[in-house]
């Protein structure tokens, strides 16, 4: 089945609320083996909604609308969907009784306009709303299916899980399963070039690269009769990807780099301490956000100024005067003094220029040195990050995490 999602509501077009419904529905439909071809957002306007419905019916088998099922004059989805499917609105007595009971329980009188929620397209499958007042419905006609769900996310999700998921599972008879591989140290275009032969001949499974700040993901997706069959289709593709670009692969389970590193530290019971300058505690903050890391994380120092580097860590005045705070020598001394203070198995230092000011021709904005001392293995990596201050700081943290991952894997 091929699907279009139509989100109804002028407030969405104004940017007054974030449309989380399409994210949820796209993910769930994907799991059910249904191809999502289109996302549409349309205001509370009958003519424009009807145009979108007609377009979607020409190009897809399944349409799911969210929003526009309430009691007010601008809630027009019922009427418009019924017209597009050639159906009349008729009173659904059980829905009316639920509405009357709802207001009676609140000890409030029901306004006349609330009654419109109980008028639904004839011959439709009515979907009970257990978290609100507006029922949804399913219409099947001329080989097309339209499912109309309420707009509030809690109501929409509840109705989908209670009523729609099982209905669509019977209709679909297939599953789409994806494996997400995550890479650091290689750009999207370079990754695609390395895998061009696989991408060019792809059919089922398919391979799609996605760039994220500082890293790249690959989504390998297969369609089959069930999840196990889809996984078997994916496995040989993942093996081939690993053989080509495995050096950069840090997770085949769609995990964040910090999760991978924290898990490795905990599994191997490696204690860690960190001294940060330009990242201002960002690396320590990312690691300590992972549950259970307290068994490994020893200490974190934010030594932003030269004075702090000298007083808190013991970096020499001569080192700072001769080489400057942003240098291989300072990163090295920071990590060595950190080991003396903490005696941690693994020590990391970061010093650099995050900008936007402070750079020179010799030491431009984005220049960062990362020191790492693991047992007796000492290394300092020089990186050149690009972008604004946040991007430079984030890339520095990712680079440090990747250094940790490589040295302990």
Automatic annotation (TrEMBL):
<dbReference type="Pfam" id="PF02464">
    <property type="entry name" value="CinA"/>
</dbReference>
<dbReference type="InterPro" id="IPR036425">
    <property type="entry name" value="MoaB/Mog-like_dom_sf"/>
</dbReference>
<comment type="similarity">
    <text>Belongs to the CinA family.</text>
</comment>
<dbReference type="InterPro" id="IPR008135">
    <property type="entry name" value="Competence-induced_CinA"/>
</dbReference>
<dbReference type="InterPro" id="IPR001453">
    <property type="entry name" value="MoaB/Mog_dom"/>
</dbReference>
<dbReference type="Pfam" id="PF18146">
    <property type="entry name" value="CinA_KH"/>
</dbReference>
<dbReference type="InterPro" id="IPR041424">
    <property type="entry name" value="CinA_KH"/>
</dbReference>
<dbReference type="InterPro" id="IPR050101">
    <property type="entry name" value="CinA"/>
</dbReference>
<dbReference type="Pfam" id="PF00994">
    <property type="entry name" value="MoCF_biosynth"/>
</dbReference>
<dbReference type="InterPro" id="IPR008136">
    <property type="entry name" value="CinA_C"/>
</dbReference>
<protein>
    <recommendedName>
        <fullName>Putative competence-damage inducible protein</fullName>
    </recommendedName>
</protein>
<dbReference type="InterPro" id="IPR036653">
    <property type="entry name" value="CinA-like_C"/>
</dbReference>
<feature type="domain" description="MoaB/Mog">
    <location>
        <begin position="4"/>
        <end position="171"/>
    </location>
</feature>
